[in-house]
Amino acid sequence: MNGEDDTTAAPDASAVSSNNEPAIDPHEDEMEQSVGISEYLSDTGFSAVSKARYSDFLVHEVDLQGNVARLTSMTVPTEDNNNNETTAPSPADDDKKLDMVVEEEEEEEIDLETQLTRMIKEQHTAKKVLSMLEVHDDVTEGESTDKTAEKFVTLPALEKGDRKAVHEWVRKALPNARADTLDGHIRIWHVKFEREMPNYGNFGPNNNNNSNNNNRKPKRQNPIGQLSRKGSRGARIGYAGMKDKRGITTQFCTLYRTVPSQLVNPKAVASSMGGGNTKDRGFSVVRLGNFEYTSKELKLGMLKGNRFDIILRNVQAPGDDLASQRHVLEQAAQSMKDKGFINYFGTQRFGKFKDTHLVGIAAVQGNFEEAVDILMRPKSDEREDIKQVRVEWQERFKYGKNKENEANAAKSTSRKLNRFMTGEVAILQSLAKYPMDYTRAFSAIPFNLRTMFVHAVQSLIWNRAVSYRIGKMSKDSVLVGDLVDVGKGSETVHVVTEVDIANKKFTLEDVVVPMVGKKSVYPTNELGDFILQLLEEVGLKKEMFQDNKCRSLIVTGDYRKIICHPTDVDYKIQEYFDPLQPLLQTDLMKLQDENIVIRAQQEGERAKLAMVVGFTLPSSSYATIALRELMRRPTSNEFQKDLTLE
């Protein structure tokens, strides 16, 4: 977008069969199966790449009144404007909050060589740095290093601000490197030679010099944090819900006792259409607009849902020609319009490492030592330095299981983790003071994170129960003993009777399945018995949700509809030739009058097929699960990585 390539590197085509399907059952996925996601309503499906570009996934928040958050203006109202709707509140006007639309665009993913070249303006030097690091990485412990290999590479002279940017980049992007500055020139060393650096020893967690520190992470581009820093001192930022990290998202925000000029530089808006450019990307990550004053402050949950507009690229559907493939896509879209989709909790509900529910199970059992161990153990997809820190923690009792060894290990380990590892850091800080008190340590985790563990347990049981209900009992009929929600709240569920069935009083879209809790009502048919069996399989009983040493793990229970019916479903089937061809106008493109222009076909090119689909979902449903039903294919990262854009 805006002249920048926001693509993700295409996966290795060798892992893909000739029709762009992974060489496994295309309808099943091990990750989805492990969290209970296994069934479909539709009979027609196709394969496609989703989220190939950030601009392939647009999200617009829908407020409680049904208004869609769209960035249509970035005009900054002035404080002396006579229009009452845009006049800034006085400091004494406590009821006024600034309401605005915030559009966040994730930064593109670029290879390391290109990133460094952009900063130092010398591609050959960037190549030299990465080559030097690679040479020393290839030498295993105990082997001798090529004596002709350089220990460091000196970069060209840079201004102070540019040097700071390079140091920050090294910290973020090169865990095997250290950097220092000599006479205005940055030198990048391989980490194995850091003892030879003049300022060796200045890499502690509290050190603020320009040299690299592998235990520190640069600040993330957090839009809420940016607004907080620019707003009035102590300004409260209100927002209704979290948004997808990978995509372009637009939402409403309120800022207490703040005027627009504090947030946006009007000159920057006029010149760049974004409020200013980032240092190395050429475009702004966060744009603000549609300012107005309101007396209502936004809080979490104050939204009706989200509008999604999504591009599915390189569609592979049954059929010998484009016309027959188009027919398959139309059938799939019509099926989702007519039937909706199974309202599964998506895989993201179970955490980055898909072990959130395992922590929750141990905690609900009251086995907090096990819960802490699962949270702290090494993760397969984690950075190697963090993985090593976790291994060191596991070996804390190597010389004896006692409080002193654990306290010392907790102090040491907590300093090596980054500050975004909130749960782990909280546990270690507690164990440093109160070693081997795992109940206290688990309770030290922030409340919202603790509740995520028990919610993941509820989600696992719910997913598996619904898969049984759809797959083994019926996927299109209401059954005697089902639960239906006839109102709001846990006291208004109704058990379906034979009379209800005879009168066709309910449809499958009325059926709910309980999220287990101390007040949950269970279906009176075989599904109720199956839910109790599921609890037993994972080592739980329904009574465990009623009494727990950690009060945040005591949950009342709730009910969730098994079918979600998206509204405002529309789609367009588009032929294109460039694999990364923009196919969807973002709000910013509309503001800049940038239209979608399909590149002309080049000699030897075959037309590719894309589907641009849009729909609106309630706030508790997942777009990835809707896409899963539409395509009748898994949408997990593990499945998607084996698909290609060509």
TrEMBL record:
Residue ranges with Polar residues bias: 73-89
Record-level GO BP terms: pseudouridine synthesis
Compositionally biased region (Low complexity): 200-215
Chain ranges of the TRUD domain: 340-565
An MF annotation (GO) of this entry: RNA binding
Pfam families in the record: TruD (PF01142)
Superkingdom of this protein's organism: Eukaryota
Region called Disordered, residue ranges: 1-38, 73-94, 200-235
InterPro entries: PsdUridine_synth_TruD, PsdUridine_synth_TruD_insert
GO cellular component terms given for this protein: nucleus
The protein, known as: tRNA pseudouridine synthase D
Species of origin: Nitzschia inconspicua
